[in-house]
Structure prediction request, 307 residues.
Amino acid sequence: KPVAMSVSGFADGDFLAFAEEFMLRNEPCVFTEHVTRHWKSRKLWQKNGKPDLDYLAREFGDTTVPVADCTTRQLSSHSKREMKFSDYIEYWRSCNSSASVPSEGEGLPPPEHKLLYTKDWHFVRDFPDYGAYVVPDFFGSDWMNEVWDARKDVQDDYRFVYMGPKGTWTPFHADVFRSYSWSANVCGRKEWLLYPPGEEGLLRDTLGNLPFDVCAPEMEDRRLYPRAGEACRPIHVVQEAGEVIFVPSGWHHQVRNLEDTISINHNWMNAFSVDRMWSHLKAELRLVKICIVYEQLWPCKQKCHLQ
Prediction:
C-alpha cells in the first residue's frame, strides 16, 4: 500500500529556492494552482471544473491525435492508434462513468468497454500560435526542447497534452532518457504513485521485467516478484486542478485520472539533471552492445547445437 502522504508543496519562492530544495536533491514537489491561474487553457478548456468538450471540438476537432486504449497492453505500454479529435470527443461524450469506468481500486473495466486516452499529443507543435499556457519560470531552463526549437529540418518536441475520462491511466515507468518532467492539471484530478530511484529494481519479476501495473494483485505473488516486499511503499499524491507536479530524474511512477482530466506535460532537462541522464544513456548503450554481441553469437550456438 502507498504511503498516505503528499510530497512537499511549493507555493511561493524563486528559482534558486526550487533548485536547491528539489532539483539539486532530486526530490518531487507540487506547485499550487497560482502557477497556472492565468493560463488560456484553464480559462477556455474547462467549464465549472469539467472539460469543455464543445469548445475543444470546435477549436481542435479537425486535427489527428494519438489515443491509447487503457484496456489493452502492448509490451510495456498501452496499445495506441490515431483518431480524429472530433471522433475522440464523441467517444468521450458517450462515456458513462458509472457503467464503463471502474471506481478507484477496482481495476480495468470489462473488455467490451474501451477506455481511451488522448496522450502524448504534441499540441504546441500542432498549434504553435495558440498559446494554451506559459511555461512556469521554474522550468524555463529546458535543454531538451531548446534543441528541437533550434532545428529547422524537423518539427518535434517533448511538450504534450493529455485528455481523458475518469479511470484512464499510464502504466509504471520512468520518463524518457531519465529526464525531469512537469505535469499541470488544467482541470480534473490525478493520482500519482512515485518510487525513488533504485526501488524499481526490487519490483522486477523473475525475468527482470518491471511491472506493468504496480497495483495489480500479482505483485503480492513472491513466485513472480520475489523482492517486491522489500521495496519501499510509494509516495502517494493526489494532484488537484491547477496544481503542477515536478517529477525528478529516475523516479518511476504510475498515474491514474480520478475524474475527467486534462493535463499539460513537458519532459525537460538542465544542468541539474544532465549527469543522471548521461549515466542512464551510457548504461543503455552497454545493454545495446551486449544484445548485439548476443545476436551475433546466437546463430553460432544454434548451429553448434544442431551439429
Observations:
- The CA atoms of residues 170 and 185 lie 15 Å apart.
- The two ends are 53 Å apart (CA to CA).
- Residues 1-5, 97-111, 303-307 have pLDDT under 50 and may be disordered.
- Helices lie at 15-23, 40-44, 53-60, 85-94, 97-100, 123-126, 143-150, 274-306.
